[in-house]
Amino acid sequence: MNTNMWFFDDVNLFKILCPHKYSEYSSNHKFSSYKKSDYIYFEQDSANKIYLINKGKVKIGQYNDDGKEIVRAILTKGEMFGEKAILGIDKRNEFAQSIDNTTSICPISKETLYELMRDNVSVSFKIYKFIGLRIKRLERRIQLLLFKDAKTRLLEFLDELCEDYGYDCEKTGDKIIKHPYTQKDIASLIGTSRPTLNIIINELKQAKILDFYKKEIRILKKVA
């Protein structure tokens, strides 16, 4: 079962929340376009909007006291970010940056979103549930970065990917993960370098734990 956080009970929140779907908002609403490395917002910017990804990929991160970048999430088409604005937080505590040359974003003001949520209580509940799950997942990732070695971080990240993008192969019993991330994305998300990631992947291949392809990871069934 795909448990991608953007879908709850088969409700596509992007289609429900995007103001282009509503005649009273569509005439005055525009998508915003970004190139690779363009920032959508910075730390300490005013948190007055939430954003839906229409196309492309967005990196969410922070800089630590030493100026080192910490990647908290890489989001793709259909996902929401900047969601803490809904909770009454005035300033951003992270940055959002396009990592695709053709990123298209649907920005929604807090006021517009509150109006849409008031019209549909069940969707409002799902949005707050989404925010709770997102915060819990980001906290778990920070704990991984602080206290686990790179191999453990990768294995736990693969468990997370399995929840979002995985399914069982009936013929072999393997878990197959079809995902949108590059190796560079994965290295950033688990806080390591691409060379280190490649070393770990090769070790796991040799141990017959997984097979790793460009957009597919196969978690091999353990043979007794």
Automatic annotation (TrEMBL):
<dbReference type="GO" id="GO:0003700">
    <property type="term" value="F:DNA-binding transcription factor activity"/>
</dbReference>
<dbReference type="InterPro" id="IPR014710">
    <property type="entry name" value="RmlC-like_jellyroll"/>
</dbReference>
<dbReference type="InterPro" id="IPR050397">
    <property type="entry name" value="Env_Response_Regulators"/>
</dbReference>
<dbReference type="Pfam" id="PF13545">
    <property type="entry name" value="HTH_Crp_2"/>
</dbReference>
<dbReference type="InterPro" id="IPR018490">
    <property type="entry name" value="cNMP-bd_dom_sf"/>
</dbReference>
<dbReference type="InterPro" id="IPR012318">
    <property type="entry name" value="HTH_CRP"/>
</dbReference>
<dbReference type="Pfam" id="PF00027">
    <property type="entry name" value="cNMP_binding"/>
</dbReference>
<keyword id="KW-0238">DNA-binding</keyword>
<dbReference type="InterPro" id="IPR036390">
    <property type="entry name" value="WH_DNA-bd_sf"/>
</dbReference>
<feature type="domain" description="HTH crp-type">
    <location>
        <begin position="148"/>
        <end position="223"/>
    </location>
</feature>
<dbReference type="GO" id="GO:0003677">
    <property type="term" value="F:DNA binding"/>
</dbReference>
<protein>
    <submittedName>
        <fullName>Crp/Fnr family transcriptional regulator</fullName>
    </submittedName>
</protein>
<dbReference type="GO" id="GO:0005829">
    <property type="term" value="C:cytosol"/>
</dbReference>
<keyword id="KW-0805">Transcription regulation</keyword>
<dbReference type="InterPro" id="IPR000595">
    <property type="entry name" value="cNMP-bd_dom"/>
</dbReference>
<feature type="domain" description="Cyclic nucleotide-binding">
    <location>
        <begin position="13"/>
        <end position="129"/>
    </location>
</feature>
<keyword id="KW-0804">Transcription</keyword>
<dbReference type="InterPro" id="IPR036388">
    <property type="entry name" value="WH-like_DNA-bd_sf"/>
</dbReference>
